[in-house]
Design goal:
The structure holds 2 protein chains of 2 kinds. By secondary structure, chain A is α/β, with parallel strands linked by helices. Chain A has helices spanning about 75-85, 105-115, 145-155, 175-180, 220-235, 250-255, 265-270, 275-290, 295; strands at about 5-10, 10-15, 15-20, 40, 60, 65, 95-100, 120-125, 160-165, 185-190, 195, 200, 205, 215, 240, 260-265. Chain A has a single domain, classed as TIM Barrel, CATH 3.20.20. Chain A contains 9 helices and 16 strands. In chain A, strand 12 and strand 13 (about 205) form a beta hairpin. In chain A, helix 2 runs parallel beside helix 3, helix 3 runs parallel beside helix 4 (about 175-180) and helix 4 packs across helix 5 (about 220-235). In chain B, about 50% of the residues are buried. Chain B folds into 2 domains: about 1-95, Translation factors (Elongation Factor Tu (Ef-tu), domain 3); about 100-230, 3-Layer(aba) Sandwich (Rossmann fold). In chain B, strand 11 (about 200-205), helix 7 (about 210-220) and strand 12 form a beta-alpha-beta unit. Chain B contains 7 helices and 15 strands. In chain B, helix 6 runs parallel beside helix 7. By secondary structure, chain B is α/β, with parallel strands linked by helices. The longest helix of chain B has 14 residues, at about 210-220. Classes of the chains: A alpha/beta, B alpha/beta. Chains A and B meet through strand 5, strand 6 and helix 7 of A and loops of B.
């Protein structure tokens, strides 16, 4: 018998497959059985409502896509009042995703969500490349100290499982990964998108209204695999692998590199059933290879 | 909505760069409304990564038709597909035109205004207005006008189909190679000045500047106006928030989920 169960902090997941924040929503409930997923991650919320970036916000690129949504969301109060109640009916763990300008905002979000019930973990989005955070001209996840400060502030405010979502737009992912671990993160998720551009040579303009956007999809998978491996080797907390997972083979690659779970993002837009197919695919792969637990596969890369 | 594999019954070039694809699907036939769209997978992964949103052009007994212009690699790859192949579709999506508002009102006259390939969803609407809403064309009180504007002759589509339905079709081209020379907004202004009864609704589909101008005309004439909008999309179902249009109420609405058809008064033009 194959056991797909995996542990992320205090979270016990029945399988290692989640849909990435911002790429999944209740709308897909019409197409797939959401309760088959390992966990449900809500779209990132901020303390106050954000209107998001001007259009165009998406375009496709070779083997991937760019997006510059800009964290459009209704804010914490709207989430608790309108978005959370239907999510409370889910039979799987619910993870909220939060972003803020400073430690204070993260704290306030953490407190607000920790007492709302149902939410079992927080993914701390330190790495959305499409928004400006206060006066800073870098992402939190691009700076060890800012990462430490933020995660520590969240840690002091909650007993929920904390997953720090890291950015690939850094020189050395190991340093940021260790900073998050030191500050008390229970797990790391990586990678967020890579900053990129698309150009229309007829208009001589950028395709995206925000000029730059975050690159996702299979195009970034090799980078994501490398970074997951580096983070795995330099920390002792579970890693959630993200970046261009389209099928179970991609998922297994991430697990071999050290991931205890994975997130499916862009693939949802192309095939909303991708996550479910990946769960079945991992199960078959493990059965065929006589691997009984995800744990035995995590980091089992032969080098 | 459903995700399904539909068999291509035909994929015919109807003009240079314009194709009409017929898809077999009892589900889409039964559940699609004029103004809705489908997300089509043009190729597996690679260069054409995202699905392409295409408006429902005609709703048939056993499937639907889409009419599209080849504008980039996605639609180019779609145009190479042949009858017998299967393609992956998510649909029907979006809200569609609000037909009931006008179809059963006292004044059943409608003007459909198309810009270029924007005529595609308006054909499904015209068929619905004529066939299922008992809109009596050619009567003195009730009439269906279709105004089609395009840059040039080869881009004016579906004229005969619409005439066969009993619509009065007016054509404008920017270079004057077919119909009257000028923009379709001139056509609408002149129609409004010549007809001697009130239009109940304007339905428009085309490029943003055209929709903006038509919305303005509708506003100043006190006619209700529905516009079918276009934006680059990823998911097509309201999840990714990738296809915003500025709303008068503040913030953005999503073309895929809140539209693609909007009351023109909802949009901050």
């Amino acid at each position: 018998m194959v056991n797909l169960g995996t542990k992320i902090g205090k979270l016990q997941l029945k399988n290692p497959v989640m849909a990435a924040s911002g790429t999944f929503g209740p709308e897909y409930g019409e197409l797939i059985d959401v309760n088959k997923l390992g966990a449900y991650i809500a779209k990132t919320i901020t303390l106050n409502a954000r209107i998001g970036n001007p259009p165009p916000r998406v375009c496709d690129t070779p083997s991937g896509m760019l997006n510059s949504i800009g964290l459009e969301n209704g804010g914490l109060d709207d989430f608790i009042k309108n978005k959370l109640p239907p999510l409370k009916r889910l039979k799987i763990p619910l993870i909220a995703s939060i972003a803020g300008d400073d430690a204070g905002e993260f704290k306030e979000l953490t407190r607000g969500l920790s007492k709302s019930g149902k939410i079992e973990a927080l993914e701390i989005n330190l790495s959305c490349p499409n928004v400006k955070h206060g006066k800073r001209d870098f992402l939190i996840a691009q700076d060890e100290e800012a990462t430490y400060e933020t995660i520590e502030a969240v840690r002091r405010s909650t007993t929920l499982t904390i997953i720090a979502k890291l950015s690939p737009n850094v020189t050395d992912i190991k340093k940021v990964a260790r900073a998050a671990e030191r500050a008390g993160a229970d797990a790391l998720s990586l990678i967020n998108t890579l900053v990129g551009m698309a150009i229309d040579i007829d208009t001589k303009r950028p395709v995206l209204g925000n000029i730059t956007g975050g690159l996702s999809g299979p195009a970034i998978k090799p980078i994501a695999l490398r970074m997951v491996r580096e983070a795995y080797k330099s920390t002792r907390i579970p890693i959630v692998g993200i970046g261009g997972v389209m099928d179970y083979k991609d998922a297994v690659e991430f697990i071999l590199c050290g991931a205890s779970a994975i997130q499916v993002g862009t693939a949802n837009f192309i095939n909303p059933a991708a996550s479910i197919e990946i769960i079945d695919g991992i199960k078959d792969y493990m059965a065929k290879n006589n691997i009984r637990e995800i744990k035995k596969l995590t980091g089992a890369l032969k080098t | 909505m459903k995700q399904l594999k539909a068999k291509i019954i035909g994929n015919k070039r109807i003009a240079p760069d314009f194709y009409k694809m017929r898809l077999a699907s009892a589900y889409l036939a039964k559940n699609s409304k004029p103004g809705q769209f489908v997300e089509i997978e043009c190729s597996k992964g690679g260069e054409i990564f995202l699905r392409r949103p295409l408006g429902v052009h005609r709703i048939l007994n056993d499937g639907i038709e889409v009419l599209y212009e080849v504008v980039g690699p996605g639609t180019k790859s779609l145009s190479a597909k042949t009858a017998g192949e299967y393609i992956d579709i998510i649909g029907p999506l979006g809200n569609g035109f609000f037909v009931q508002r006008t179809a059963y009102s006292a004044q059943r006259t409608a003007a459909l205004v198309a810009g270029g390939v924007g005529v595609a969803p308006l054909v499904a609407l015209a068929e619905t207005l004529v066939n299922s809403s008992k809109l009596i064309v050619h009567s003195k009180r009730r009439k269906l006008y279709v105004l089609i504007g395009a840059c040039k002759k080869g881009h004016v589509l579906c004229v005969n189909d619409l005439k066969k339905l009993g619509a009065e079709v007016v054509v404008y081209t920017e270079d004057g190679s077919l119909g009257k020379k000028g923009l379709i907004t001139q056509g609408l202004t002149s129609l409004l000045s010549t007809i001697n009864y009130e239009l109940s609704t304007i339905y428009a589909c085309g490029p943003y500047p055209m929709l903006k101008a038509i919305s303005h005309i509708a506003d100043s004439s006190g006619i209700s106006c529905q516009v079918s909008m276009e934006e680059r999309m990823a998911c097509g179902v309201g999840v990714c928030l990738g296809c915003p249009v500025k709303a008068k109420s503040g913030g953005y609405k999503m073309v895929c989920k809140d539209g693609p058809v909007f009351d023109s008064k909802e949009i901050a033009w």
